[in-house]
Specification:
Layout lengths: L10 H9 L3 H16 L4 H28 L19 H9 L1 H4 L3 E5 L6 H14 L4 E5 H13 L3 H8 L4 E7 L6 H14 L4 E6 L13 H13 L1 E5 L5 H11 L6
Parallel strand pairs: 1-4, 1-5, 2-3, 3-4
Helix pairs in contact: 2-3, 3-6, 7-8, 7-9, 9-10
Length: 259
């Protein structure tokens, strides 16, 4: 005997579900109603199954949209993070990976040489935040300043900043990779000042805080920016050998790659 074929929904139900944008329910309802009939489900069981399926589908869709909007250059996760090879203390990592600092509107500042895991840390924590339901945006400092410059050109800097601050967490990587002129420094300060105590920032730089004057033209700008960044912040100093250089040497020598 062949299995019973799931009936199609009536046209008015299909139209109503489409109008309400309940795509998952519209897709699953015919087959689920057949199962419910043969297994004699109670009406509330049918409703519960359909609602749960719609919620799950929307959560998955929203997570994919948040991940795309974050614009991570690569995908790194906290599961991939090798804490043993990192210079981040375990209690600090536990706090950061709990994401409590985002709920508290605190900042994260990562300082250390190139190749010591700063970008990996930022992206992994950002990915965890996206998974937890937060809106996240990743930019390099150069990209951020360029974006603000474009806003300056058409007098929309304030709007650009407010758009960025709709995110719960903004990650700014490679601060100090290139020196800024007076205007660029003021634009960066304006962004940091606007985020102060409103949104969490995660920043990474290979310059120690004492050396931020090397890429910021005015000492007072550096002091004022750091004052706001570090007031409510976890500061992590990364050190050790560059992971990229270590892996390059291992490849050249034919040795197994370490994490």
């Amino acid at each position: 005997m062949s299995a019973a074929k799931a009936p199609t929904l009536d046209a008015d139900l299909t139209a109503g579900l489409r109008r309400l944008k309940l795509a998952t329910i519209r897709q699953l309802a015919p087959e689920l109603l057949l199962v419910a009939k043969t297994q004699r489900w109670a009406p509330e069981e049918v409703l519960r199954a359909l609602v749960e399926a719609e919620i799950t589908a929307r959560d998955d869709s929203n997570a994919r949209a948040r991940l795309k909007a974050a614009t991570f250059p690569v995908l790194k996760t906290i599961d991939e993070f090798d804490l043993a090879a990192s210079s981040i203390p375990a209690p600090t990592w536990a706090y950061l990976s709990s994401l409590e600092w985002i709920h508290a509107t605190e900042n994260l500042a990562l300082i250390g040489p190139a190749g010591t895991g700063k970008s990996h840390t930022l992206i992994a924590l950002g990915h965890a935040a996206v998974t937890a339901g937060h809106k996240v945006k990743y930019l390099t400092a150069a990209d951020l300043v360029e974006t603000l410059y474009r806003g300056l050109a058409d007098n929309t800097v304030g709007k650009v900043i407010e758009t960025l601050l709709r995110n719960d967490l903004v990650l700014v990587d490679e601060i100090g990779f290139a020196p800024l002129d007076d205007t660029g420094a003021q634009l960066l300060f304006r962004f940091v000042a606007a985020a102060y105590e409103r949104r969490s920032l995660g920043v990474a730089s290979h310059h120690s805080f004492e050396d931020w004057g090397r890429f910021l033209p005015e000492h007072t700008t550096a002091v004022s920016m750091l004052d706001r960044l570090l007031h409510h912040a976890t500061t992590v100093v990364t050190n050790g050998q560059s992971y990229r250089m270590l892996q390059a040497r291992q490849r050249a020598e034919g040795a197994p790659l370490t994490p």
